[in-house]
């Protein structure tokens, strides 16, 4: 297990290019189960979640060849239908294999997934949607066991909540289903569009991705494709917030800035000085930042995955702020750790009340989940003294070795084994 030692009052200079999106890459990797042809993915990030997904797919018999920043997957020799607990427990996205396996093979058995402890995050919506396509499920001894009579049948699937994971699972399952499927109240996230674009390049017939209704016309098989993964909007947003907090001239590039509209609006409302272009955001120093109130919401609303990061920023601006978390019921676990660093944050039900004008001071803190851990990194960069962040394996799930990526641009970040 590793820890990070971060020196405060950090400098920051130059620019950083954002790699492929973790939340896009994971379902794209899983889609290899749907085809017997090569799936070549470019711009793959080097992350623990990506490595674990590759291990899981190999357990099924997917052939994987890695080159620098590129991966070739082939699922023609699948020999397994059971997802083992030891891998599945490490990441929530492992539930995404359920739809493709049921679609292609008519059966699947998967251990109930793990991931970040940020709420119940039930898989009920996944199962509800797949049931409407003809799957039947039972849960035994911690496993979800699914079966299909011959093949999935296209249908209207009305989601009670625009779940990203459920939309992805049902979308992949529908591609090889018999007939047409309509996903109603689907998630609109850019990662959904990325998955649909990749599947369409494989020969799928999908329209409406990114809107409330997605239409899928089932096909018999999929072909080879070579696809570039979307850049990671959450990593991009994290680096933008870091530059605003450190208050230095810095550029975040190789992104789609439109995907960050809600963050950009919030930061500009706070007084941040940003030069926004189509593929980059340049952060310029500013004299004064103000507190604001925000509410997380499904895309295009403010992302829950940037809530912890902007909370760290809110602690050091002039005036008070509020954040209402509407997506996950247990996503304020970073609050006690930020308070250890000198913040003054109180939580009442789903709302966090953040006192501004605080000064962070270095301390020992503990990472509790992926986005919480990076909020502690941001606070530590602005603190007086050194901060030690323990359990950074959470961080490695979504950020490439931050001591190398961000560390080479000014901040002093050191990794040590515990």
Architecture overview:
The protein is an alpha/beta fold and 418 residues long. The chain has 2 domains: 2-18 and 231-417, UDP-n-acetylglucosamine1-carboxyvinyl-transferase, Chain (Alpha-beta prism); 22-228, UDP-n-acetylglucosamine1-carboxyvinyl-transferase, Chain (Alpha-beta prism). Helices cover 30% and strands 25% of the residues. The protein is built from 14 helices and 24 strands. The strands form 6 sheets. Strands 22-23-1-24 form a 4-stranded mixed beta sheet. Strands 2-15-17-16 form a 4-stranded mixed beta sheet, with helices on one face. A hairpin with a 2-residue loop joins strand 8 (135-140) and strand 9 (143-148).
Write the layout of secondary structure elements.
Blueprint: E1 2-7, E2 15-17, H1 22-30, E3 38-42, H2 48-60, E4 63-67, E5 70-74, E6 82-83, H3 85-88, H4 98-105, E7 107-111, H5 124-131, E8 135-140, E9 143-148, E10 156-158, H6 164-175, E11 180-184, H7 190-201, E12 205-207, E13 213-217, E14 225-228, H8 233-246, E15 250-253, H9 261-270, E16 273-277, E17 280-284, E18 293-295, H10 307-314, E19 321-324, H11 335-340, E20 345-348, E21 351-354, E22 364-366, H12 370-382, E23 386-390, H13 393-396, H14 402-405, E24 413-417
Parallel strand pairs: 2-15, 3-14, 6-7, 10-11, 18-19, 22-23
Antiparallel strand pairs: 1-23, 1-24, 3-5, 4-5, 7-9, 8-9, 11-13, 12-13, 15-17, 16-17, 19-21, 20-21
Helix pairs in contact: 1-2, 1-7, 4-6, 5-6, 6-7, 8-12, 10-12
